[in-house]
Amino acid sequence: MGGSLIMPVMSNRSLVSALQETSFLLRGVAAHFWAEKIDRLLEACGHEPSSWEAQKILSWYGGMGSFNDLMISTVNGHNVREEDEEELNERLAMLREFVYAEASQLARDA
């Protein structure tokens, strides 16, 4: 894959930058439901998410149809070449883990 759907890794990553990168990735494959959910949260919190936004993010994880269940795939109607699915899903998994860890930390620190 040419990397067109993956933003460069930011050296000083934050929760906001990881959410922005996740939204960019999801929009690139036409996974609009989760991209729009992330964008709405980013619009609400700006550059400084609160513990409320952290709790909102954490609510996306777990249960049927959760953010954890999202798989980028042609079978799911995403705009992706089959040969790119593995790389994009690995990137998505890494971003999901980072977002969860950062949101958990923010919620604990509140």
Give an overview in words.
The protein is an all-alpha fold. It has one domain. Helices cover 55% and strands 0% of the residues. It contains four helices and no strands. It has helices at residues 15-28, 32-45, 51-58, 85-109. Helix 1 runs antiparallel to helix 2 and helix 1 packs antiparallel against helix 4.
Query: Alpha-carbon distance between the termini?
Result: 40 Å
Based on Cα principal axes, name the global outline.
elongated
Number of separate domains: 1
Number of helices: 4
Low-confidence stretches: 6-12
The tally of strands reads 0
* Proportion in β-strands: under 5%
- Average per-residue pLDDT, rounded, comes to 89
Q: Helix fraction?
A: 55-70%
Largest sheet: none
Structural class: mainly alpha
Rg, alpha carbons: 14 Å
Note the run of SSEs as H and E. HHHH
Sum up the structure in keywords.
single chain; 110 residues; mainly alpha; 4 helices
Short description:
The chain has helices at about 15-30, 30-45, 50-60, 85-110. It is mainly alpha-helical and about 110 residues long.
What layout of secondary structure does this protein have?
Blueprint: H1 15-28, H2 32-45, H3 51-58, H4 85-109
